[in-house]
């Protein structure tokens, strides 16, 4: 990374561990990273494995930071932010990054003050294995340097995509955030179909997961549309064509559209809870 700042993470859960791990593997100096958490076990693990600074005190890590990542559960966010606002007098000098779902930027301004610089990031669970898809959104409070800093940080655990507003972030959350669950559901159904036809469960899983991985890699490397990639595998009148027809007869597109809309609606409902 070109832009090295002191960065503090409040909360040491799995997502924090993956983000910090990705940053450090990408060359970010461990002595510039601070992590706070109420309990010691996760902190000790991060300190021993990555060499980052750790503390049980949120204020200690924040006072050492130029950027703060809020990585706590949404239901704890108001309390955590209130503590920061009461005790940190230069919050407007620090970049605020939040990875909590559901809470929108105007609410953080209520929590932390109108003049904060803030970026919302929505990472997904494949970030835990360095294959994440993180959505990012902000308002006019941050400059290009802030945007580039956060982009590079989250590129350490996969890829990043800036969206134009928080409504689009809800859609990204319904696709990229919830998407791994959809794929796991589909993979499970394929594996069960194979076992019902006589395949060993372990071999069925190995077959399905490698096929899924290979298809995703082909999609990533190809310039063809997803529809054309599907056609490339589908010989007219062959077995694949018959399988695809079965999916199309069940309106796979309609099912996916319904699932994404349901998740978007839930994201919007959750935003009203805070």
Short description:
By secondary structure, this protein is of the alpha/beta class.
Any overview of this molecule?
The structure is a single chain. It is built from 12 helices and 8 strands. The protein has 274 residues and is of the alpha/beta class. It has 2 domains: 158 residues, 3-Layer(aba) Sandwich (Rossmann fold); 93 residues, ProC C-terminal domain-like (ProC C-terminal domain-like fold, Orthogonal Bundle), CATH 1.10.3730. Strands 3-2-1-4-5-6-7-8 form an 8-stranded mixed β-sheet, sandwiched between helices. The mean pLDDT is 95. It is found in: Cytoplasm.
Descriptors for this entry?
single chain; 274 residues; alpha/beta; Rossmann fold; ProC C-terminal domain-like fold; 12 helices; 8 strands
The total of helices stands at: 12
- The CATH architecture of the largest domain can be given as 3-Layer(aba) Sandwich
Overall average residue pLDDT: 95
Count of the domains? 2
Secondary structure: helix percent: 55-70%
Quote the CATH topology of the largest domain. Answer: Rossmann fold
Main sheet makeup? 8 strands, mixed
Shape, principal axes of CA atoms: elongated
Pfam family, one: F420_oxidored
GO molecular function, one term: pyrroline-5-carboxylate reductase activity
Pathway: Amino-acid biosynthesis; L-proline biosynthesis; L-proline from L-glutamate 5-semialdehyde: step 1/1
Family: Belongs to the pyrroline-5-carboxylate reductase family.
